[in-house]
Amino acid sequence: MLSSNLPALGGYADTIPLTPGAPSRQRGRAERGAVRSAAVDREPSEQSQREQNAGVGGDAAANAAAERYGPLALEREVKDDGRALLLYQRAQGARA
Amino acid sequence: MTQLRFNELRGEQVDYAIHRQDRTFLPARDHCPLCPTRPGGPTTEIPFPAFEIAVFDNRFPAFTAPQGAAEVVVYTDRHEGSLGTLAAERAEDLMWVWRHRYLELGAREDVEYVMIFENRGVEVGVTLHHPHGQIYGYPFLPPVPALELAADRRLGGCAPCELLRAELEDGRRVLFENDAAVAYVPYAARWAYEAHVTIREHRPSLLECEPRELRLLADALQRLVRGYDALFERPFPYVMVVHQAPTARPDPAGAASAADAGGGHLHVEFYPPLRTADKLKYLAGSEQGAGTFIADTVPEESATALREAIARAA
Predict the structure, then answer these.
(1) Packed helices B211-231 and B299-313: angle between N→C axes, nearest 10 degrees
(2) pLDDT on residue B30
(3) Which of B53, B57, B247 is closest, CB to CB, to A6?
(4) ipTM over 0.85
(5) Which has more pLDDT, B273 or B127?
(6) N or C: which terminus of chain B carries fewer CB neighbours within 10 A?
(7) Is B41 on the interface with A (CB under 8 A)?
């Protein structure tokens, strides 16, 4: 099994694969300790501004979870057929 | 769903994804699956009336878990336009989205190499015109990044760093530069108007970039694409590929990072198929049978033409 070159898990331990059920390397890397640090840690989660979508996305909108990454807010959705959908937008007041 | 077979004579994997035969092919604009879902309109891949950047699992994937990934990245909810016409802030945000996907896909056990790319134009097989790109998470290290790692070993260090140094020293093929990135037609370009945009500092991937570098990379990519469109005064087809460090390495007890392992330097390569305004370069006998490109132009002349086009587009 190959090992990862990616940054340590510190700030990303709660990120999940886009595809539900896809195996994640993160647990193994966390147990092995820091590999290297990401250039910029993810900012704390906050509610993003997508009120305009309410009522159109149906169940998908109800399943949304807001996160932050750099200057972006992102929401994770699950489409009706089970495929994942990520929506990114510039967080209010965020500068890269 | 997909099957990998190893081609012994070529020493490479072939991916069989036969369900892709049925993928959506050049739909009418009002049935574009990458547009937002308008009230009263058909449901698209994005069931919302507006969005900025959307990423979703490809409905017709070349790779799927637990053997890789295939995602679609939609740059905008506007059907018209291109990477070059995005607002500067949106292009910058796209760099962050790429970075986030590299991070998450690369963390997966079944992804050894993350390739972010864009096919633009029917000339390179585009089936949807809405501005978008794709990401493949390969469950193995593909031949091209493997060749780049071999180039590192051959040159005794980071090959893109050395090639960038040589291009800047020569100068004849440099298209433009900013504080973070340099665009140039490479010395041994295979395509008539091939161009590379290389980060100046040794950054194995987007993850190591400072926010300022991401912004300047986005600016450089947009400037090049606008120049391409000005070259023949038409939307310029290309394949654009983001080259980064593999997300897995073969030595678990080895180097602490891709940089330490000597592999990977963030750069973006463009492979445009046009050799004139209305003639395509085809991969024929020599290219396919021998692996040797026969070029109809010299990179120095292409660079001159591209510099003039980029100036016109500015």
Answers:
(1) 100
(2) 84
(3) B247
(4) yes
(5) B273
(6) C
(7) no
Pick the CATH number of B3-313 from 3.40.50.970, 1.10.357.140, 3.90.226.10, 3.30.428.10: 3.30.428.10
| In chain A, where the domains are located | 1-39, 42-96
Distance of CA A18 to the CA centre of its chain: 8
Taking the C-alpha atoms of residue B135 and residue A29, their distance in angstroms, rounded to an integer, is 23
pTM higher than 0.90 for the full model? no
The fraction of chain B above a pLDDT of 70, given in percent, is 96
CA gap B12, A29 in Å, rounded? 29
Amino acid of residue B23:
R
Tell me, what's the pLDDT at A65?
57
Range in A59-63, B22-26, B137-141 with the lowest mean pLDDT:
A59-63
CA pair distance B138, B70, nearest whole angstrom: 9
Q: Please provide residue A32's backbone torsions phi and psi, each rounded to the nearest 5 degrees.
A: -80, -10
Residues within 8 A of A (CB atoms), B 150-189 only: none
What confidence tens digit (pLDDT) does each residue in B205-224 have? 999 999 999 999 999 999 99
In degrees, rounded to 5, the angle at the alpha carbon of residue A44 between the alpha carbons of residues A41 and A45 is 125
Query: How far apart (Å, rounded) are the C-alpha atoms in residues B81 and B86?
Result: 7
Asked if the C-beta of B99 comes within 8 angstroms of chain A's C-beta atoms, the answer is yes
**DSSP 8-state symbol, B278:** S
Tell me what the pLDDT averaged over chain A comes to.
56
Residues of B with a catalytic annotation lie at 132
CB A39 within 8 A of CB B126: no
Read off the amino acid at residue B300: E
